[in-house]
Amino acid sequence: MDIYTTRFGTLTVQPQDELLFEEGLIGLEDCRRWVVLTDSNNAALGWLQSLDQGHIALGVVSPRRFVPEYQLRVDRTDLNSLGLSTVRDAEVVAITSRWESGLTINLRAPIVINVEKKLGCQVIAKDDYPVQYPLDVHNTNLRRIA
User: Fold this and answer.
1) Cβ-based neighbours of 134, under 8 Å, separated by 6 or more
2) Considering only CA atoms, which of 86, 108, 93, 102 is closest in space to residue 63?
3) How many helices (H) and strands (E) does the chain have?
4) I need a labelling partner for 59 at 20 to 30 A (CA). Which of 38, 107, 108, 126 fits?
């Protein structure tokens, strides 16, 4: 399938690369079909591109890459909806945001993906992690995102 995106131009997405988020994301409930893209300029960064709305692409990173002690605990119902028995069987990414003060990642509401079943959902962590965890761009090599 070909989709026009404002960030990447026209993309050809194979059906096996499509991820289904049955409830969408928080604030983007109508966007249910997504694809994860790698960033050719930055190995630390990926993009979650909406297939339903080509103008929506979210920068995502592995939270453990920047916060090694990050341990995600979520409700069992979230894991069950993805066909997972434990979060360790999932790919977990955090959404990046750009502010005047710098870059942040959302550790409170990460995205959990069952890569095998091509299912994903945004979850609320049981622990009190910040929604805007500041990144030190000088040490993270993420200066060029968003």
Assistant:
1) 101, 102, 103, 104
2) 93
3) 3, 11
4) 126
- Where are the chain's structural domains? 2-140
Count of residues for the chain? 146
Phi, psi of 14 (to 5 degrees): -80, 145
Q: Note if the pTM is more than 0.85.
A: yes
pLDDT at 142 > cutoff 60: no
Q: Which long-range contacts (CB under 8 A, 24 or more apart) does 38-45 make?
A: 39/145, 41/144, 42/141, 42/142, 42/144, 42/145, 44/140, 44/141, 44/142, 45/96, 45/142, 45/145
- In tens, the pLDDT along 55-96 reads 999 999 999 999 999 999 999 999 999 999 888 889 999 999
Q: Residue 88 and residue 29: Cα distance in Å, rounded? A: 26
Q: Does domain 2-140 have CATH number 2.30.290.10?
A: yes
Strand 111-114 and strand 91-99: the pairing is antiparallel
